[in-house]
Design goal:
Layout lengths: L4 E3 L1 H9 L9 H4 L2 E4 L3 E6 L27 E6 L1 E10 H9 L6 H25 L10 E3 L13 H10 L7 E5 H7 L3 H8 L10 H8 L3 E5 L2 E3 L9 E3 L5 E4 L14 E17 L7 E14 L5 E5 L4
Parallel strand pairs: 2-12, 6-14, 7-8
Antiparallel strand pairs: 1-12, 3-4, 5-13, 7-11, 9-10, 11-14, 12-13
Helix pairs in contact: 1-4
């Protein structure tokens, strides 16, 4: 069947590789992409105990090794399509070609729409990670007043280490909103612990905090998004709120193996192409550049994370 949307390898390459250098997007690191073979797919939710059950591994001289068998239940889901069109009048294409071809409006459209799709995904992931409902009972707390890390009397290092001590799997990622990080790196007690008791003020680097807490990585979401309705004055809000989350992320996990807080199921890869000969674009018609991807973000092990709601004021 001939489809009106023609995937273009050149535009697809731009859409896949494009990253806005001025945006700090962390969605792909927080919920890594995992390829699935169809729109509808299944994934395994493992009982926590399976990962800690050690079978007898001894083998007699002529014996047979014991067989390991992981339990788990299969859950069904499906990817969702996320895409955008950018109409380009033929006049714009002709003008670009007449000027020597240094500017390609089609390539610009592929990059621009890809950037918006990435920001939209960032919003979805932030809303999922910074939602108390994504975490198991006993794996979340709401901070207020003196316990918030923006308060001079708070002790964020102790709060984080206590949460890490109760982890089923050792948390390897600390996710912070930009304001949370700004307040955390200035926290008086944390500065004292890292730089010494004589230091009551200062700015800590991510590496210093990672080393002090013995956590492999800190991810800071610093992007903003316009939350105003279309046509209204722009209201730029932080994509990642004033919260913090400790996560165990296994980047090698997939839909069949491995325990991880969450991942992103991806069917195929991001694509971009053209819808040719659209007579409704401008006076002389034009083309539409369509860019999109088919993904589904999932939390598959809610007890592999810990959430600090309202970490700072």
């Amino acid at each position: 069947m001939k489809l009106p949307f023609v995937i273009n390898s050149y535009l697809t390459g731009i859409a896949r590789e494009y990253k806005n250098p001025d945006l700090s997007l962390i969605a792909d690191e927080v919920l890594p992409r995992v390829q699935v073979g169809a729109r509808k797919f299944e994934y395994t939710v493992f009982p926590t105990g399976d990962a800690f059950t050690v079978p007898d591994t001894s083998v007699g001289r002529t014996g047979t090794p014991n067989q390991v068998e992981f339990g788990g239940t299969r859950e069904g889901s499906f990817v969702e399509d996320h895409g955008l069109d950018d109409p380009i009048p033929y006049d714009d294409i002709a003008e670009a070609q007449a000027n020597g071809g240094g500017y390609d409006p089609r390539a610009h459209a592929a990059a621009y729409t890809s950037g918006i799709i990435q920001l939209d995904r960032e919003v979805r992931v932030a809303n999922m990670i910074f939602d108390a409902a994504s975490y198991a009972s006993g794996h979340k707390t709401t901070l207020a007043s003196a316990t918030q890390w923006s308060h001079a009397d708070s002790d964020p290092a102790n709060a984080i280490l206590e949460a890490m001590d109760g982890a089923i799997f050792p948390y390897n990622t600390l996710v912070l909103g930009a304001r949370t990080w700004m307040k955390l790196r200035q926290n008086k007690k944390l500065v004292e612990k890292v730089l010494g008791t004589a230091s009551t003020s200062g700015l800590l680097t991510r590496q210093q905090v990672q080393d002090a807490l013995e956590i492999p990585r800190i991810l800071v979401g610093a992007s903003r998004v316009n939350t105003a309705r279309k046509g209204q004055t722009a209201v730029l809000s932080r994509t990642w709120g004033n919260h913090a989350a400790l996560l165990y992320i296994d980047s090698s996990a997939d839909t069949n193996r491995g325990i991880t807080f969450g991942f992103t199921a991806e069917w195929g890869q991001r694509v971009s192409g053209e819808i040719l000969e659209d007579p409704n674009i401008g006076l002389r018609g034009g083309v539409k550049i369509r860019t999109g991807e088919s993904v589904r973000e999932l939390v598959v092990a809610s007890d592999c994370g810990y959430f600090f709601q309202n970490a700072v004021s």
